[in-house]
């Protein structure tokens, strides 16, 4: 497989053209699998170099690998990490490596429903090609850039109500407009003894009633 080399690696001009090979001296092998674009290469680069691979997305071609020695309970564990190509056309390359993997990190992208739906197919494939005792972990990658708590904090700082919505799924969209309309209605048509409308309280209550999280 010496001809198999990642375009990512070639594009960045680093790494070696040696192809991964499992042997006792190469330690334990960890393989990253999952749809194209879920962030396998970025996860590996983050783990190995502590950096985020910014810039345009270059799909992995074939397979790539990096070594990393970790100290676990005072014991040195050498990991050889294989970064596979998620694209369908490289599936046969990936299949060839499954058998030698000791652990599989199976990724999906939390912002990409299809990558999550495909996990079943990945697991079926893993069942078929990997060792029976392979360690499998499912990773939902790509944490949202702005946490809910950050939004809450900012809203509190400026004394404005806060809620998260999803124009895509429709989550809380109706509620956002209803809450604004209720506030407006109370301002213009409030009875003298009627208590002030508490917008945030209303929103929080509605979300609790809906039995849902706040996102
Ligand atoms: N916001 C965000 N973007 C990410 C994250 N991880 C990866 N990305 C972006 O997702 C895109 C794909 O990342 P890659 O790591 O190249 O994806 P891959 O799974 O290796 O893709 P293939 O090589 O085609 O299998 C890139 O544009 C990254 O910048 C993450 O944690 N958060």
Q: Bin the helical content.
A: 25-40%
Tell me the fraction of residues in β-strands, as a range: 15-25%
Report the CATH superfamily.
P-loop containing nucleotide triphosphate hydrolases
Report the radius of gyration as a whole number of Å.
24 Å
CATH architecture: 3-Layer(aba) Sandwich
- How many helices? The count is 8
Are there runs of 5+ residues with pLDDT below 50, and where? Answer: 1-5, 9-18
Q: Please tell me the overall pLDDT.
A: 83
Span between termini: 46 Å
Outline: elongated
Largest sheet: 5 strands, mixed
The helix-and-strand class reads alpha/beta
- The spatial strand order of the largest sheet comes to 2-3-1-4-5
Description of the structure:
37% of the residues lie in helices and 19% in strands. It is built from 8 helices and 5 strands; from the N terminus they run αβαββαβααβααα. The chain has helices spanning 7-12, 40-49, 91-98, 113-117, 119-129, 148-158, 173-189, 199-209; strands at residues 28-34, 63-72, 75-84, 103-109, 135-141. A 5-stranded mixed β-sheet has the order 2-3-1-4-5, sandwiched between helices. β2 (63-72) and β3 form a beta hairpin. α7 runs antiparallel to α8. The longest helix has 17 residues, at 173-189. The protein starts with 6 loop residues before the first helix and ends in a 6-residue tail after the last helix. Mean pLDDT is 83; it is low at 1-5 and 9-18. The protein binds guanosine-5'-triphosphate. Guanosine-5'-triphosphate is lined by residues 36-42, 53, 57, 59-60, 85-87, 141-142. Guanosine-5'-triphosphate (GTP) is lined by residues 36-42, 53, 57, 59-60, 85-87, 141-142.
């Amino acid at each position: 497989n010496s001809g198999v080399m990642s375009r990512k690696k070639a594009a960045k001009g680093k790494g070696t053209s040696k192809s991964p090979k499992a042997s006792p001296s190469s330690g334990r092998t960890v393989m990253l699998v999952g749809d194209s674009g879920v962030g396998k290469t970025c996860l590996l680069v983050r783990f190995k170099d502590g950096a985020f691979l910014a810039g345009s997305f270059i799909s992995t071609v074939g397979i790539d690998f990096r070594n990393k020695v970790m100290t676990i309970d005072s014991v040195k564990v050498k990991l050889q990490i294989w970064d596979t190509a998620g694209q369908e056309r490289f599936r046969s390359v990936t299949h060839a490596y499954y058998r030698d993997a000791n652990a599989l990190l199976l990724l999906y992208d939390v912002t990409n429903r299809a990558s999550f739906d495909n996990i079943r197919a990945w697991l079926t494939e893993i069942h078929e090609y990997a060792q029976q005792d392979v360690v499998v972990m499912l990773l939902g990658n790509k944490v949202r850039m702005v946490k809910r708590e950050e939004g809450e904090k900012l809203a509190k700082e400026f004394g404005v109500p806060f809620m998260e919505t999803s124009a895509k799924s429709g989550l809380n969209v109706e509620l956002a407009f209803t809450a604004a309309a209720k506030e407006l209605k109370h301002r213009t048509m409030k009875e003298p003894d009627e208590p002030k409308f508490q917008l945030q309280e209303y929103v929080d209550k509605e979300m609790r009633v809906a039995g849902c999280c706040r996102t």
